[in-house]
Amino acid sequence: MITVVGMGPGAAAHQTRAALAAIRQAEVLVGGQRHLAAFPDFRGETRCLNADMDGLMRWLEQNPHRQIVVLASGDPLFYGIGKRISEHFVGLPAKGQNVRIISGISSVQYLCARILLDMNDIYLTSSHGRKPDFDWLLQHEKIAMVTDNVIGPYQIAQEIRLRGQQRRMVIGENLSQENEQIVCLSAEQVVQRGDMDYGLNVVVILNER
Ligand SMILES: C[S@@+](CC[C@H](N)C(=O)[O-])C[C@H]1O[C@@H](n2cnc3c(N)ncnc32)[C@H](O)[C@@H]1O
């Protein structure tokens, strides 16, 4: 059985009991270094995640009888490894693995809660490892985006300026961690700050009102 577990935004207080129960029962814990380090008392086998997703899929297929837990940040099905694993195994019992997913609190959900912003009609997307279509994206009133260090707050603000829009941006960095920082700025102000070093961040884009 493969269990993909959503770890929430990072702090232990935001992990679910279902997630912790699955981890306790795991024979093998698979995850990024940051996630594995959160469970120093885990006595089973660990496997560090790297960019070789095909290799991971092969290894998962080869270990059908083990209780494997794959740790994912936030919610596994929101731009996370849950999509890759479920698409790989769904409808393919020949591959011999059952998959279940335990949802977690996404970084976007966490940020919306912190700034008291309802998620109704919000357009959810990602610039993590991909370039979004900003012409399409910026037609939406309310957008939330997970990012990476190639397309982050500064680059997003530049795309907004390029289209002559007046937008407010909420930037949530290192959410749920001790060094959490949440700022609300106009896109123009984000451009003026320059291409500064942001921590792990989520950006919410709103219309200026
Ligand atoms: C591959 S995506 C995974 C998103 C994740 N599945 C979720 O639901 O939040 C990774 C991105 O999520 C965002 N992220 C995850 N945890 C975060 C945190 N604690 N603070 C700010 N952003 C976070 C960052 O934009 C990061 O680059």
TrEMBL record:
Any Pfam family the entry gives: TP_methylase
InterPro entries: 4pyrrol_Mease, 4pyrrol_Methylase_sf, 4pyrrole_Mease_sub1, 4pyrrole_Mease_sub2, CbiE, Cobalamin_biosynth_MTase
Pathway it works in: Cofactor biosynthesis; adenosylcobalamin biosynthesis
Domain of life: Bacteria
Key words, A-Z: Cobalamin biosynthesis, Methyltransferase, S-adenosyl-L-methionine, Transferase
Record-annotated Tetrapyrrole methylase domain positions: 1-186
Molecular function GO terms recorded: protein methyltransferase activity
GO biological process per UniProt: cobalamin biosynthetic process; methylation
Protein name as annotated: Precorrin-6Y C-methyltransferase
Native source organism of the sequence: Xenorhabdus beddingii
